[in-house]
Design brief:
The protein has about 260 residues and is an alpha/beta fold. The protein is about 35% helix and about 15% strand. It has a single domain, classed as Alpha-Beta Barrel (TIM Barrel), CATH 3.20.20.150. The chain has helices at about 10, 15-25, 40-50, 75-85, 100-105, 125-135, 145-150, 155-165, 185-195, 215-225; strands at about 5-10, 30-35, 60-65, 90, 110-115, 140-145, 170-175, 175, 180-185, 205-210. The strands form two sheets. The chain has an eight-stranded parallel β-barrel with strand order 1-2-3-4-5-6-7-10, surrounded by five helices. A two-stranded antiparallel sheet has the order 8-9. The chain is globular. Residues about 235-255 have low confidence and may be disordered.
Length: about 260
């Protein structure tokens, strides 16, 4: 089966979730991540959720603010709990978490993202393990661009997927440059991502964070498909093992 691919509204329309959502719908994508990456965007988006046309989406995620002002953590969690009630995964940068007991209220809706080089935690498999010990019901949003920035050999990406494959909820896809900005995929990043694509089950949604113009969306989606070919080798939805002697067979051949 083809992979489920969608876009982050924040990548398509900086700070304008309604415009970003309109672009996702215009391109007939069946997955979307509603982004409130900056804290002032959070409450307006949460308040507007019931008025948004989200019909037709097979998968909906929500991205929490990447920075939280001092003294506002409890209020942020209160707002996010309204999203958690919908059963949507809530992607959270672990550096914003100060009071783990507050965030544990989200239960399985909490989805921790691995971080880029700017952050002090959540960058490696070892750091992710320590986070998940304190957030036992949380799942993982694997940002493959962040992982490549941390280790261009993709060894750290392999370790993360090997150790936390059963926690994998979704994948963020983009090229993350040296300034930690999200760019369109290059041929080099596509090759790097393809080296671990087999470890990502076909039913795990890919959410594109590449900052591109609307006219570039279709081309970026095709690059993502080439970087993440579907293989038959995945035995179960989150089974990263393969019987001895079984060779992966591409179900979709990249061009």
């Amino acid at each position: 089966m083809p992979r489920l691919i969608g876009f982050s509204t924040g990548a398509l329309a900086f700070g304008a979730y309604d415009r970003g959502l309109a672009e996702v719908r215009a391109h007939a994508l069946e997955a979307v991540e509603l982004s409130a990456l900056r804290q002032p965007e959070l409450e307006p988006l949460v308040d507007a959720i019931h008025d948004l046309d989200l019909s037709g989406f097979q998968y909906i995620a929500f991205h929490a603010p990447s920075e939280i002002a001092a003294g506002t953590e409890r209020r942020v969690v209160e707002l996010l709990l309204r999203i958690a009630e919908r059963g949507w995964p809530i992607v959270v940068h672990p550096n914003v978490i100060a009071d783990y007991s507050l965030w544990n209220q989200m239960g399985s809706a909490l989805c921790i993202e691995n971080m880029d080089k700017r952050k002090p935690i959540g960058r490696t498999a070892t750091e992710i393990e320590s986070l998940l010990e304190r957030l036992p019901k949380a799942s993982l949003c694997f940002d493959i661009g962040h992982a490549r920035q941390i280790d261009s050999t993709m060894t750290e990406a392999y370790f993360i997927l090997s150790r936390f494959g059963t926690k994998l909820r979704q994948v963020h896809v983009s090229e993350v440059n040296t300034r930690s900005q999200h760019d369109a995929l290059s041929f080099a990043s596509m090759l790097a991502f393809r080296s671990v694509a087999e470890m990502i089950p076909a039913d795990v949604p890919l959410i594109v964070e590449s900052v591109v113009q609307p006219s570039q969306i279709d081309a970026e989606i095709e690059r993502v498909r080439e970087a993440f070919p579907v293989v038959e080798a995945v035995v179960g939805a989150h089974d990263l093992t393969r019987p001895a002697g079984v060779t992966p067979r591409l179900l979709w051949q990249p061009t």
